[in-house]
Amino acid sequence: MSFVLHFHPLSSFCQKVLIALYENGAPFERHIVDLGDAESGGAFRKLWPIGKMPVLRDEDRDRTVPESSIIIEYLDLFHPGADRLIPADPALALAARLSDRLFDLHVQLPMQKIVGDRLRPAGKTDPQGVADAKTALASAYAFLEADLEAKAWAAGEVFTIADCAAAPALFFADKVVPFRDSHRALARYFARLTERPSVVRTFAEAEPYLKLFPG
User: Fold this and answer.
1) Using CA atoms, how far apart are residues 44 and 180, in angstroms rounded to an integer?
2) Does 136 reside within a domain?
3) Which pLDDT does position 91 carry in this prediction?
4) Cα–Cα distance between 18 and 210 in angstroms, integer?
5) Does residue 122 form part of some domain?
6) In what order do the strands lie in the sheet with 28-32?
7) Region 38-63: what's the mean pLDDT?
8) Staple 169 to which of 67, 74, 107, 147, CB 3.0 to 4.6 Å?
């Protein structure tokens, strides 16, 4: 098997790539990484010294591919599925990439700041940082509410890399700063995401680990 995905099922960025792999249909081997375990974490850092998941290893091409967006781009280039996650049309591709970055930078990162603060020991929390992250999420929700009003998917009428990013970002963000009662268009979009087979499968695989989420 050519592809080996080094990941953890609870990681939102790893879930983004899992959704893409299920959409793509590429066979791959799973390698769950436990960064808290010296042996597992040490082996992973030998593969990717930055130590951030996910990482895709393409054994056939002897390539190590980090970063969720780059992994999805790599799949579209070297193992395209029936439906491309990066549209062939340059303008649509640009829209998909922009939306992907919006979900990663303006939903995922503020959400992770809030979650990370809950894991800090007593006396080491960052209340101002959490308040800023909540403000950032509120701004992102307001933008997405208007942007998604007339769209089927994040970048338009087809499912793309942006939707792979959106599903886990919104799933966890809703747990720390709920949006479904206050942002109807965003809630409708999220409901469509959660019915997508690739997303259903990814979330089901994460279910046993949700007890570790400090939400």
Assistant:
1) 37
2) yes
3) 96
4) 17
5) yes
6) 28-32, 3-7, 55-58, 63-66
7) 96
8) 107
Element (H, E) at 212: none
User: Which one-letter DSSP state was computed for residue 84?
Assistant: -
pLDDT band at 115 (very low <50, low <70, confident <90, very high): very high
State whether 46 and 141 are in the same domain: no
Nearest CA among 32, 39, 41, 38 for reference residue 4: 32
- Alpha-carbon gap, residue 117 to 126, rounded angstroms: 7
Q: What radius of gyration, in Å, describes the C-alpha atoms of the chain?
A: 17
pLDDT mean over 1-16: 94
Residues in the chain: 215
Domain boundary among 41, 56, 78: 78
* Other CB atoms within 10 Å distance of the CB of residue 160: 29
Q: Which residues contact 186 (CB under 8 A, 6 or more apart)?
A: 141, 144, 145, 148, 170, 179, 180
47: confidence class by pLDDT, cuts 50, 70, 90:
very high
HEC per residue, 119-167: CCCCCCCCHHHHHHHHHHHHHHHHHHHHHCCCCCECCECCCCHHHHHHH
